[in-house]
């Protein structure tokens, strides 16, 4: 069976001295250096008792040592669980209890949160070619059901227990190859790596795609608009990001008195994780002076399932046709569907998850007997076989008996020149659902709420217009930059009638 770490072996054989990783802690590694670091760490893991089909939990913020940990775990035959170190003790403890890892590794040198987790677990410092990490030894618990699994990625919902998505070696390899192909990566590329490697986008689209190609990943532990700007101006050629990251760097550049980025080496910019709207896409393309490519994927699909390849100025706001080897169809009779051509998006292909770890019931709900994954996203497929995402089925707002898709309302507000970004959610009130809009604006350039109401009145039917528009200097976001809609109403503190 081909395994993900074979990509690294192939790069070492082909170009051992080519740059692989650089990070904010000062690491500058070639592919041969990454290979040595992962060998060194694999020996540490084996000395700690790690066996094939064990789990290795990595409490991580992005750095070169964390990438070495991925390959080290795979070299021992174990399964890696990348988990964001900024999660709370309670969230970490749920994963510990469910996954029963043999060891926990922590990237304390780039993450105070990882250091805090290490302290409470009584972790010991280990050093080697990988640098310095913390290791907490636990009981070994090999599980033969994981023999073909490379990664367990835990999804964290607003309620209930997290689910561990089992991604196979073949699925991760497929996703890495697809990502490289979509971006037309070459070994000379420098890919910006701020998307957390604890998320499928950063792990597979960025790290695995770059390793397959032999490209260089410039890693930052945490996102900031200034760092992204500096990376772009410093020679990065590929920027994969989510819309919120693009919005923030556009605002940062505007505050520096510039309307365009003007990055000399940048050649490819992509957006994922949320639908695009035409006006915002035009703004972003004018800013980067490049086409903004869009795509669709999720943890359960090993990242991308579809993507665009459009020229600059294209009016296409779909997420593109499916990637080669992937199938998609629409279940128009699913909740939120119109019974004709809009409904839940189903996908099928070799990159789908094996299932949810130790959760047969959830697996049966998500995967049909004939191999389709129910994504929970609402969409449609146009006459050119391009997939359009309308929104999450769970986020659909039904107001006055009409379906309101949050991305459509967000698009109308994002078109306003003083709006940085926004999020639209529903709130149950008096037997109906109200439309609430949370709008991020600059402290020095704030529009009035009534001005925004008048603006969207020209763009939205009455039932789609927000009942309340709440202005804020910042909106709650995940480490990926993706806005956390479930936390929006908590911001209100009961202030709205």
TrEMBL record:
Keywords: Ligase. The keyword Mitochondrion does not apply. GO terms for biological process: fatty acid metabolic process. Residues 9-357 form the AMP-dependent synthetase/ligase domain. Residues 408-482 form the AMP-binding enzyme C-terminal domain. GO terms for molecular function: medium-chain fatty acid-CoA ligase activity. It comes from the Bacteria. Belongs to the ATP-dependent AMP-binding enzyme family. This is Acyl-CoA synthetase (AMP-forming)/AMP-acid ligase II.
């Amino acid at each position: 069976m081909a395994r993900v770490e074979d990509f690294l072996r192939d790069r070492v054989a082909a170009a051992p001295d080519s740059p692989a990783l650089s990070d904010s802690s000062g690491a500058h590694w070639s592919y041969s250096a990454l290979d040595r670091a992962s060998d060194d760490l694999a020996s540490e893991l084996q000395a700690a008792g790690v066996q094939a089909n064990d789990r290795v939990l990595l409490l991580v913020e992005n750095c070169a040592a964390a990438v070495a940990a991925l390959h080290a775990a795979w070299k021992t035959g174990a399964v890696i669980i990348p988990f964001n170190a900024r999660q709370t003790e309670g969230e970490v403890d749920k994963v510990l209890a469910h996954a029963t890892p043999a060891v926990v590794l922590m990237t304390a040198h780039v993450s105070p949160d990882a250091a805090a987790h290490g302290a409470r677990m009584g972790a010991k410092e280990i050093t080697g070619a990988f640098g310095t990490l913390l290791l907490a030894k636990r009981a070994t618990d090999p599980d033969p059901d994981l023999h073909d699994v490379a990664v367990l990625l835990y999804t964290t919902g607003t309620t209930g227990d997290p689910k561990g998505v089992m991604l196979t070696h073949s699925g991760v390899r497929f996703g890495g190859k697809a990502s490289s192909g979509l971006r037309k990566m070459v070994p000379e590329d420098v890919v910006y790596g701020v998307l957390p490697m604890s998320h499928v986008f950063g792990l597979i689209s960025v790290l695995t795609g770059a390793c397959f190609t032999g490209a260089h990943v410039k890693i930052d532990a945490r996102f900031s608009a200034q760092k992204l700007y500096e990376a772009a101006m410093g020679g990065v050629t590929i920027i994969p990001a989510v819309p919120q990251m693009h919005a923030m760097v556009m605002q940062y550049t505007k505050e520096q008195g510039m309307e365009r980025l003007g990055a000399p080496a940048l050649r490819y910019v992509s957006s994922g994780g949320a639908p695009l709207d035409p006006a915002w896409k035009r703004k972003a393309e004018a800013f980067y002076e490049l086409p903004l490519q869009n795509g669709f994927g999720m943890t359960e699909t090993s990242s991308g399932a579809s993507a665009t390849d459009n020229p600059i100025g294209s009016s296409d706001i779909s997420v593109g046709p499916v990637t080669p080897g992937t199938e998609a169809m629409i279940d128009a009779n699913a909740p939120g569907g119109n019974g004709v051509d809009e409904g839940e998006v189903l996908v099928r292909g070799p990159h789908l998850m094996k299932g949810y770890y130790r959760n047969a019931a959830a697996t049966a709900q998500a995967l049909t007997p004939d191999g389709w994954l129910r994504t929970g996203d609402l969409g449609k497929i146009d006459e050119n076989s391009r997939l359009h995402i309308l929104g999450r089925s769970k986020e659909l707002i039904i107001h006055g008996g009409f379906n309101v898709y949050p991305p459509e309302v967000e698009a109308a507000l994002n078109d306003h020149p003083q709006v940085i970004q926004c999020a639209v959610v529903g709130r149950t009130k008096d037997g109906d659902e109200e439309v609430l809009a949370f709008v991020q604006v600059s402290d020095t350039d704030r529009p009035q709420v009534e001005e925004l109401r008048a603006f969207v009145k020209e763009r939205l039917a009455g039932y789609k217009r927000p009942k309340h528009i709440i202005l804020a200097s910042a909106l709650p976001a995940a480490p990926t930059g993706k806005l956390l809609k479930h936390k929006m109403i908590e911001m209100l503190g009961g202030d709205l009638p």
